[in-house]
Amino acid sequence: METRNFGKTGLKCSLLGFGGFHLLEIDQQEASKLLNSYLDAGGSYVETAASYGDGESERKVGLAISHRRSEYMLVSKSNRRDKASFLYELNRSLKNLRTDHLDVILMHGVANRDELDQILAPGGAMEGFIEAREQGKVNFVGLSMHGQSDILIEALQRYQFDAVMATINYYDRFNFPEIENKLIPLANEQGCAIILMKPVGDGLLWRSAPVAFRYAFSQPVSVVVAGMNTREMLELDLKLAEEFKPMSEAEKESLYQDAPELGNYVCRQCDKCLPCPENINIPHIFMLEGYFDRQMRDGDVRDPAEFALRDRLRFWFGNSERAQAEYEQLAVKVDACTKCGICSERCPYGIDVVRKLHIADYKLAGREIF
Ligand code: SF4
Ligand code: SF4
Fold this sequence. Notes:
binds iron/sulfur cluster
């Protein structure tokens, strides 16, 4: 399997990383088998978090592979924002993981500026990291966030973080376009490692796993982290990593055109429907719809399993209130639409733009439509 540089830390890791969240769904025996098979196959990046099962995922990792500690890069996460509780939790993580040091600690799920301010303030978690690094308990620091990336971008502008973890897949790229447009270029420019999470969109793209992983592996990132809780899943993901060939730009365009999960509902942010004679910023409103519920409720009739999956995932990232607040601030909203239909005629993806705008308006204005 390909190995990549982990930013400018000097560390190297395998292209496929093992994410520890789904270890909560299996017993220790199975977790041990999967983690050891992953290492046997050349995997060298294992990631978990203190909050996954209140330490249960960390304990499973520790029991399974602490005897092979030199073979992998170990990453955990903390959602504590002050120095004292960050250090308390880090010590607990080390005990759970049966190791004396982490390679990287990520400030987990930094959702807003208040949290970033707390982390960077005197007495904040960064001071805890610096003290722990001096004691040899952890070497590098980063941040993670689901969905929106503006706080991650601001964080990189305020502090020289070693790593950043973000949601990147061929579906959510249209809900959170600033990740590929701004965050990735900035992180790469700074030599900050990028950890890609959710290559199959939390399971939404499971039927398209080969192309979803190929898309993820093709990104300029250090590692693609996937949760794996069955042998079949592990074997498939390893095979896709071993056989990986980068996608060309033409192949990506063709994926954006044809992907069934995008269909004729998800806005590709191409701007071809503009200008609107009423000055409605159509792609921006659809991006806010992406923040709100990842454009997952589209009014189509779906089989019960697909409906349940989408219903579970659509508010997974918790950005909906912020999307509604930003919509409220727009000077021109959907109520300015005269339904002239020019936008729908222009859309190369067959989106019924007028209908979708009204669905987005109902969601973002806090009205119930379905
Ligand atoms: S249908 Fe509405 S949104 Fe579309 S171009 Fe006409 S006024 Fe603008
Ligand atoms: S043309 Fe279609 S895909 Fe492109 S921005 Fe407009 S609505 Fe979105």
